[in-house]
Amino acid sequence: MIYLDNAATTRKKPIRTIFEVIKALTLFNANPSRGSHKLSIKAGLKVLDCREHIKKFVNAPQNANVVYTYNCTEAINYALLGTLKQNDHVIITTFEHNAVLRTINSLKEKNVTYSVVTPNCYNNITIEQIKPLVKPNTKLIVVNHTSNVTGTTTNLKPIGEFCKTNGILFLVDGAQSAGHEKIDMENYNINFLALAGHKGLFGTQGIGALVINNTEPNPIKFGGSGTESENPNMPNYYPDKLEAGTINLVGIMALDGGISFVEKHQEKINKKTLKLATKLYGYLNQNKNITLYTSCIKSGVISFNLKNKSASDVVNYLSEHNVCVRGGLHCAPLAHKNLKTLNTGTIRVSISYFNKLTEINKLIKLLKKIA
Predict the structure, then answer these.
(1) In terms of pTM, does the model score above 0.85?
(2) Quick check: 34 pLDDT over 90?
């Protein structure tokens, strides 16, 4: 089986991730910081170490808070629902995932409105396009760092500087970029960074994180925190204020292991991903029967369509030949509206460090047959 749907979730994990899962289920398997016995304390300290590792990995300020979430979608919900209030205005981009779009739309009763930034002629989002959309009540700017549809990566630094100067909060969706792009929260003036554990960071499904810098969102879930149990309200300090219920120790340790793998092999990961993506892109770009929607390939995400063939038919054909790719709207309807593929969707290939050149060659061979 050739798996090329790594933008949805990376299938093959490094040994370091697997090793951390085994450790979590054997050496650390207790409820972290929910008791005073040795195992609970040991697990709690491990969780704390992982928080510090995430902060270091994204260069978050020392006083930043790392909140563990179920996934990147939940992290985005924490940031939006915990921050936006009556009559606030938000600026988003056409690349945003439904985790952003649907969450903001759920706030219509609070009269929360939003404006959408469209890419320039180079398919990029720039601060020059954002500035005209700013209103007196603009509370937050949301940017999808790397598009899961086109692979386009946005330059965050000028946007972060603008937000800081104008007192606007800055939320970055790092689901697709983390593990591929260097994210520097302090240098880019990011207030919220949402992370997915199971994609470019090679962790497991069911774990994400929201890194919070210089802002204080309200909780959107309520329950036990292991602290201040006599208090009928959530504790008024982070991360306890946002982490209701037992946290995912196995996922946290897997994420910790995945980040360690990325830190050690970052250059090799990006070099190999680009090599494989360049091979595929070269074929797609020269084939007149293929419409290509991607121009930036370093993330390994490439979207295209075959003329006169539906995306679903192509995906099914490839699946019959044991090649897994993704077809459809990829949970990002604004991006497809901009690409004029809202009715058709696209075929998306997303490459991982663990893919091989022989796999890309087989995909090309199959595409030649059907195209």
Answers:
(1) yes
(2) no
